[in-house]
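so the lab meeting is tmrw and i was supposed to have these ready like two days ago... anyway. pasting both below. for each one the top line is the aa sequence and the line under it is the structure tokens. i havent really looked at them closely yet so no promises
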Amino acid sequence: MNTLSQENSTEILIDNITEWIVNDTTYCVVEAIYPNQGKNIIPNGKAILSASGVKSVDILNNVIIGDTIKLFMGFDNALPKITQMVGGVPRIVKDGINYANAGYYEEGGGSTTMFVRGEVKNSPSDGSERAVKNSLGIYTSAP
């Protein structure tokens, strides 16, 4: 998978040295800098930061390979210190309109349970839902 950024973006390859945490600071080491070279491949276990315009110049003037940088990834009105989350493209639903043109597939094994408005909606292979520590939650304020 590549970054899908503009071809003239500046990108830096980073490796986290502390846990990725949303709404908190994560420390990373700069492993490579790609000036004016967007759409780079994202290696397994690594991340890439992309910038263009003025921010691209800031990176080139202030970051060198081997630097330790601090990242703060914050979301308004979110729980503190989120350690796992799922994001994705394309948008599936907005304001009740279906924008889906591709599906989203998770592993789909025996622990897969669809729970909607307080009821299990599928037939899990074990006959009931399992106690698992992972979930993909989709929430709505609609009645």
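ok protien two:
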Amino acid sequence: MRSRWNDAEASQLHGLDLLVYASRLVGAETALVIWGGGNTSIKTRERDHRGREIPVLRVKGSGSDLKSVQRKDFPGVRMDDITALLDRSEMGDEEMVSYLAHALQEPGGVRPSIETLLHGFLEAPAIVHTHADAVVSLTNNDRAHDVVQGVYGKDVIALAYRRPGFKISRDVADAIAERPDAKALLLERHGTITWGATVREAYEGTIELITRAEDAIAERKKGRRVFGGARVSVLEPAARRQTALAVAPRLRGALSRSRRVLVGFDDSPDVTEFVSSADACARLADRAGDSGSHDLRQAASVLRRRDRRRGAGSLVPDRSSARSRASSPATHATSRITASKALSCSIRCRGSCSCRVSACSPPGKIGARPGS
């Protein structure tokens, strides 16, 4: 993974502005976070309501997206209130959210991330947390600890999965305290945590961590058939786009019966390799997301263009059993247009269109136009 850091752009930025800059770099990498996922933070000093200079954690707020985040999306949480919780052994989510609301520098402002304490319990001045695809590829298996150790050695700590909240924040802080020389921490089936004395150090640490994972995966793939090998041949780019323009309006109409959506078309090499493979429809597309963030932000079911014997052109949610889904054949259009929630058509309903091929006509109407 290539670092996007630009000294010319960053040199004039400081404090929270520099964190905003780095956060947008993270958000620009879809292999690091999906919409709304991940969070970043810095520890700084500010004046409180009585004019006293106090330590403050500025952490990404809930509901904001890293690639377009702004200063206002980083609520300030008083560090004295955070460190006071280190004596606690347990704390429920509702109590934690209420407690943090009372610790805000701007009362009634943006709600801080559910993972605020994970950032606050660590001493590092800057922290980056992502849900990187390459890392969950290493940890989403029954021997994650051994795999991580084989890739990173003693440089990286691996922790078993635990849902976000107070307990995982304590676990992370305790693990790093026991391994002060570690460079990063991986949460199995979740993501990465990197830190540094500066924002750049935390960001570059993330890029290095992911690059090592990508290199290990590439080495492992050599000489092996991925996803069971090809099931159908991939169309030429022009033919793929023509098919997308024909299918997208009808797909969007089917999806928009309960709420309006935008449909994005992705025919990048990684996507076409997957959706044209033997294992895509047979056993992989219907599986759960790579992490809790993927399940939260992406669709819970797969849409397929069904076999022509069941009605040409019908586009319906596949709610049949896993066995029937595995045996039901799909047309070539399926392989190039309607892949799984995490792999092909990016369905967005965020109020703006960022897809390359959009079906922006009213629900159920025909007539696609190029993406805006």
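from a quick look at the 2nd one: The CA atoms of residues 81 and 109 lie 17 Å apart. The first helix runs from residue 7 to 10. will dig more after coffe
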